[in-house]
Amino acid sequence: xxxxxxxxxxxxxxxxxxxxxxxxxxxxxxxxxxxxxxxxxxxxxxxxxxxxxxxxxxxxxxxxxxxxxxxxxxxxxxxxxxxxxxxxxxxxxxxxxxxxxxxxxxxxxxxxxxxxxxxxxxxxxxxxxxxxxxxxxxxxxxxxxxxxxxxxxxxxxxxxxxxxxxxxxxxxxxxxxxxxxxxxxxxxxxxxxxxxxxxxxxxxxxxxxxxxxxxxxxxxxxxxxxxxxxxxxxxxxxxxxxxxxxxxxxxxxxxxxxxxxxxxxxxxxxxxxxxxxxxxxxx
Length: 283
Hints:
The protein is an alpha/beta fold. The protein has helices at about 5-10, 25-30, 45, 70-75, 145-155, 185-205, 215-225, 245-265, 270-280, and strands at about 10-15, 35-40, 60-65, 65-70, 90-95, 105-110, 115-120, 160-165, 170, 180, 205-215, 230-235.
């Protein structure tokens, strides 16, 4: 199975002739919206673990998919020469979809006599539209998500990086706007989503290092991949800006932590690391 099949045929099944041939360019040709949705994952719903144990008015609703380096690269208008980019696997893992920012669309499907009304992403998750080439210090700050990882990918020349959510569905109210964090999820839902999707994404990327955003994601993931020998590095969640962290804090910590562990795990070599740190000191 490929990442395209996992994202565009198994997690959310878009109306495609061949998921493996689906690219960001084809998404743009379709008016920067995904094709219509014919099916999506309902595994947690079928197990009865789709409702928040602490607040039944919240259930699995908004649905996300992952994005690879090639998607971020293809979203940039200018041609990028990636022949000398670093090819070792790197992953960035957020928690789960949050509120509706206009990128989801309610889609009703029926399975085994049961109707579902989840809200899969209608836009390319994490990217949405054509964008500019950016690198450090652009977007190395709080309040940024896909833009932050795009800037990281271009700064550190990561040809095989992948951004995804720990849990592919958000815990939302019926409107999809209000949401609850990981503490509101049934633990069986988290494990089920890991088994069906994240574990397979890890196998496909074969990362040397996984960067997690927020303590909750780190705690859920680190022990699950420990035996695989994959280094998991916790980074502050971008939403921490709302709790008083200043952008200078994110600017320094994101750059230094990512550079350090890319070097220590062999994703980038020491010469490139030294060049990066010199650039960092100058900027």
